[in-house]
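== Folding the chain ==

***
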Amino acid sequence: MIKLPFAGIKGKTEIKPLKVMVPCMQMYGEECPVLQEVRTWMKDPTLEEMARHYWKKRSYLYQGFVRESPFRESDAPNNPIRQFIIGPHIHNLVLNMLMHRDLLESPCDIERGMDFTIKKTEKSGYANYDQSYWAFKESALSSTEREAVYKFGLKNLGSRLPPKPNVEAVKVIREMFDASIDGEMYDSDRWAKFFAPYGLNL
């Protein structure tokens, strides 16, 4: 996804910065109108910082059980199989294990799988997950977890991808990108039916 920043909403008296998320067309195997422009900025040291603001942000969808957590939910859902949005750092830690040449069983195996612990620390003022790790001991799913898989099933995470924008929507992405660069306000009349700020009632 690509974040397009705007200073506020056109026609609104309150000036409050916001960001609108739009899908990167590379996710669908096509050229992205935003990245076409931003790539050229990367070659110019004076534009490199701005380029990073508009560069695509990768995230990955996972599903699994939370076996231990410092957080206590007051209203836990009936389905204990959770879906997670994972950043590139943790994803690479998971992927390195999945692709390990000496691995005999999949870490996701129902009988001989292994737990993965996410450990968050801080480094230079930013969140750091270097200390996240796979357990060395195998741990089969419990009877409760197996029952949940049987009852609720595992989701096809590919279906969670945003719908592919049509030709008109791709033109809107480029239009919004240009407006964002020029410091214009977000125009809900022109763009809201295509892409709107999350959680904002327009």
Summary: Residues 87-160 form one domain. The mean pLDDT is 89.
